[in-house]
Amino acid sequence: MTRGSRFRNFAIGSPMVWIAVFVVVPYLIVVLFSFLTRNPEGIVTWILTLENYRELFSPVFLKVCMNSLVLALGTTVLTLLLAYPFAFILTRIDENIRRFLLVLMIIPFWTSSLIRTYALIILFKANGLLNTFLLSMGLISEPLSILYTETAVFIGLVYTLLPFMILPLYASLLKLDRRLMEAARDLGATSRHVFFHIVLPLTLPGIIAGSTMVFLPALGLFYIPDLLGGARSMLIGNFIKNQFLTTGNWPLGSAASVMLTLLMVMLLIWFFISTRRVHSGDMEAVR
Amino acid sequence: MKKVLVLFLVFFLPLGAFAAGKEVYVFNWSQYIDPEVLELFQKETGIAVKYSTFESNEAMFAKLKILKKDGYDVAFPSTYFVERMSRLGMLKPLDHSKLPNMKNLNQDLLNKPYDPNNAYSIPYLWGSSAIGVNAKVVDPASITSWDDLWNPAYKGKVLLMDDVRDVFAMSLRSLGYSGNETDPARIKEAYEKLLKLIPSVKVFNSDSPKQPFLNNEVVIGQIWGGEVYQANEENPDIKYVYPKEGATFWVDSMVIPASARNIDYAHAFIDFMCRPDIAKINCEYVGYATANAKAQEMLDERTRNHKAAYPDKADLDRGEFQTDVGDAIMIYEKYWEMLKTQ
């Protein structure tokens, strides 16, 4: 065995052991627990059952899922609408300004997102910075009610997840061949036509990648809706947490976690299939 | 494979492997003891404190359940977890002769239904959840009952705890039942009453219910007494009202888990915590009310007479301590989910 291969084995092996010990094993325990029975005197009883999964098909849990899906979908659409023009402009400006803007976008990540969410509360609360400013300018006579509304939840989610949309879009817009746009214009296409028939189809992989990177975390982030929305509606994350911490129903909580993972895996598979389809579509277009 | 096994051992067996000298293993809520107290204890007794923390009763319960031996010597469960753990044989009975400082404790907090004669637990810090109002908007004198939360005048300005037991206890008490009800029909009745309150609720918060009050987002709601005491340092207009149906009380207690490795050191630690000067240090550091009557007398006048932190006897007697509702918690949670998916 040579030195190089030993190093390679170590470099590949140590993260694998790490993942196996702290991700795969705990997850397998979750999967196992999801088929066991709740034990009010302890944690679980070793009786195999499918009851936990059956219980998930209740109107309440479906409503919980719908709440989460609507929130995640809304966030994805809003971030896309905001990020696309921004990423587009980013590819067309002076390189130094572009680098500066990219750095500005990364800087908030140096602070925990939980702390940034608390900062939003300070901004939006009835006697917060925004309301104090608007009141002192005489623009409003009563403080605006922003905190603990859906608006606040969407602002919080969009704010936190926007960079995950911008970066993939920026990457795919950067690869866009300008000559195709020029050619289309030369042939008499309007700006709208150029956008919908050239730019949009060619950046579709970026849109799909960005949407996945926003949608999946938005499904699981429950502390932002809790803190900014006043915890008035229950999301999948809250549901899972309550099973573990309130009722001590670890099997049901595990089953809900497994369902959430399955949902995400299906979305990822859909993402891979649709990107591949887009790519093969490209090839045909070129041909 | 052997290496993986060694790795497992290193990660999962840090306890037990290094037991040497005089040590006491303490398992407490985070930020719930003045670190200075741990040093004082070691200096006076020569027993080193191995200190770990938890974030919820359930997490503590699960860990103690898994540890069969060589576990923690002292743990700090809340009110009804003492009851559940003693019922499940997870606690060692206390030897009161080894706890002479017990005499300093507030007699009103001893011998409660969750632990008759304090066979298993010694109260540490305690408090209540009752009604908070912003006196700038709501006259505190006009608030006497939990029912006042249902007043349509406060629509969109009400705060509730984000805790199923606390919210249902309030509704049950307002119906004249116990907050520890296990009768499904009565829990359902409380749920139906809460349905009418939900449209008025602006926010659910039990992490720091004082914040929505300080932010002028709510004018009335459920709140911990200790939070009102803290909020008053910033805004004296936030008042605390004990409703006529009674507030809900909680106590965090010290217990000796069945898996304890040194019962004598555990008693020594608990007794030390009951010393008035030590209880005073902890109470001032944590900011909740001390269960130590002698320590309470030593506090400054404003603190010791603040009704939100130290209720008078009538309010305490009217109130109720949370007890374990057993499997009825599943019924509570089902209705809670329904409330939150309206």
UniProtKB/TrEMBL annotation, chain B:
It is found in: Periplasm. Signal peptide: none annotated. GO terms for biological process: polyamine transport. The keyword Transport applies. The keyword NAD does not apply. Keywords: Periplasm, Signal, Transport. Its main location: periplasm. One of its GO terms (molecular function) is polyamine binding. GO terms for cellular component: periplasmic space. InterPro entries: SBP (IPR006059), Sperm_putr-bd (IPR001188). This is Polyamine transporter subunit periplasmic-binding component of ABC superfamily. It comes from anaerobic digester metagenome. The gene is potD.
